[in-house]
Specification:
Layout (H helix, E strand, L loop, with lengths): L1 H50 L7 H4 L9 H14 L1 H4 L23 H5 L3 H10 L13 H15 L7
Helix pairs in contact: 3-7, 6-7
């Protein structure tokens, strides 16, 4: 009987010790998981702030002038490109309300705001279209230079005041 009590006491102490070791391991694992979660949250915030920064456009790019004169044919060509490449995010009329717009942060730019669009040069628009910025892709290698300048004309037309017939 004494042997049984001694061995059962040994088993209880061993079990208690292993529970303590298991509890310590579990606590350590929870701490690591918390630290990992905290790091992911911090990284997400940093990425969000980084993506929502102002455009840094070189001065020489800002000064570029659109070599394509406004014409019905240039706008028609740009409209076809816009419908293929841009409408999903920027919407049919450039309001930033395309079917995929809600999926992106920052949200697609509203191209109809005349005040904002008048404060941006053609060179800046061309640069933004060419270089892109997450989530917007760069079109420098996807479109010709002429196509990108045509898009600048079309984007300008979204913010132009509606002509009224009196």
């Amino acid at each position: 009987m004494f042997f049984f009590l001694l061995s059962s006491n040994f088993v209880c102490e061993t079990f208690s010790l292993s529970m303590t070791t298991n509890a310590q391991s579990f606590l350590r694992l929870r701490k690591l998981a918390f630290a990992f979660l905290l790091a992911v949250i911090c990284a997400s915030i940093a990425i969000a702030v980084y993506q929502n920064r102002q455009w840094k456009i070189p001065e020489e790019a800002k000064l570029r002038k659109n070599p394509i004169p406004p014409s019905a044919s240039a706008l028609a060509a740009a409209r076809a490109i816009y419908l293929e490449k841009c409408v999903q995010c920027h919407g049919e009329t450039g309001k930033g309300d395309g079917p995929d717009a809600a999926m992106y942060y920052p949200a697609p730019a509203t191209l109809t705001d005349a005040k904002r669009m008048n404060s941006i040069t053609d060179g800046e628009l061309f640069y933004q279209i060419s270089e892109g910025r997450k989530p917007m892709p760069a079109f420098k290698k996807r479109l010709t230079e002429e196509q990108r300048w045509q898009l600048v004309l079309l984007v300008r037309s979204f913010a132009a005041p509606e002509s009224t017939n009196h």
